[in-house]
Amino acid sequence: MNGMIHKAFSLAAAMLLLAGCAGAGETAGQNSGSQSSAPLETKPVTGTVVSTQTENEGGSLTITLSDGSQQTFDYTSESRFDREPDQLQPGDQVELEVSGEPPMVVTSTLVEEAQLETGASQAPLYVADAALYRGTVTEVSLKDGTGTFTLAQAAGTDYGAAEMTFTVDENTRFSYPLEKLTEGAYVEVFYGGEESPAGAIASNYLGEEEMIVYNGVLLGVQEDENGGKSLVMAFLDSEPFCGNSTLEELYPLAEIVFHCGDDTQFYLSEDQLVLGAKLNILHTGATTRSLPPQGNALEVRMYKEIAYTPLADSGDNAPAEG
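User: That's the sequence. What structure does it adopt?
Assistant: C-alpha cells below.
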C-alpha cells in the first residue's frame, strides 16, 4: 500500500513538473520565441485484460501481451481511462500509454472489436433446456470455423465429466471472436447430446480460470443494513476451525471477502453457509487492493471434491429458491 501511495505521488509530481515546464516554455516562448515544452515520454502497450484491482486512489491492471506473457501496470487518480477500471472485464482489449519505471498507466483506451466472426455476438448467450459445461481450453482444432475443442473443468466444480470435447459447425454461436478460443481460456458451452464429443450450440468467453474461479473455506457471513451478504473466505487447506469461534476472532485469517448482490446466484441453501463450509465461487475477477481483498461473487456453490453425476441429474443446475 505504501508503495502504491509513493507511486501515485511520483506520477502526480511528474505531471505537475511537466505542467510547470510547459508553462515555463510558453513564457519563454513569448519572450524569446526559441523554447518549447517537452512532452511526457510514453510508450504504447496493447493487450487483453486479465484482471483489475481498485482502491480509492488508484489500483492495478493486469493484461496479457501479444507474446502470451502477463504484465501488471499500476495506475493512480491522475491516469485517464475511457472506461472506468472497475468496468473493464477479462477479455477486453485495451491500448495503454505507460510512462516511468516501473511503468504506470497514463491513458487507457478500450479497443472495440472491429468485426466478429460469423455467428458471434457481443452479448452473453443463453440456451434454454441445453446442458451447460464450463472449463479451461486444453485443445483446439478448428479450420474455417468448424472442428473441435476440448475443455477441462476447474477444481471444485462438477459439470458431469472431468473433460469434454465439443464439435463446432456453421450453426454454433459465439459471443466472442474465435481468436479468443485458445488454450488456457475459460469458457462456457451450451451443448446437446450426452456423450463426448457433443455438439456445441453456443459459447461464452469468461476469462482465465485462475482469475475468476475461487475455492475456499467459509469463515462467516457478514450482512449489511440492506440485507446484502458478504462471504468471508479462507484458504481451502486451512486448519479446522473451532465451532465456537466468532467471525470477529477469525477475520484476521481471511484471504478474501466476496460481496453478494441481487444478481448473485446461490446454488445451495442458506443453511449450508456455515463455518468451515467449502465453497466454489465464480466471481468477476476484479478485486480491491485492501487487506483482505474484496470482490463480487457471481455464483456460489458447494465445493465438489470429484465429479460424480451430471448437474442435470443432481439438481445443482438450478439456483436455490429464495
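The mean pLDDT is 81.
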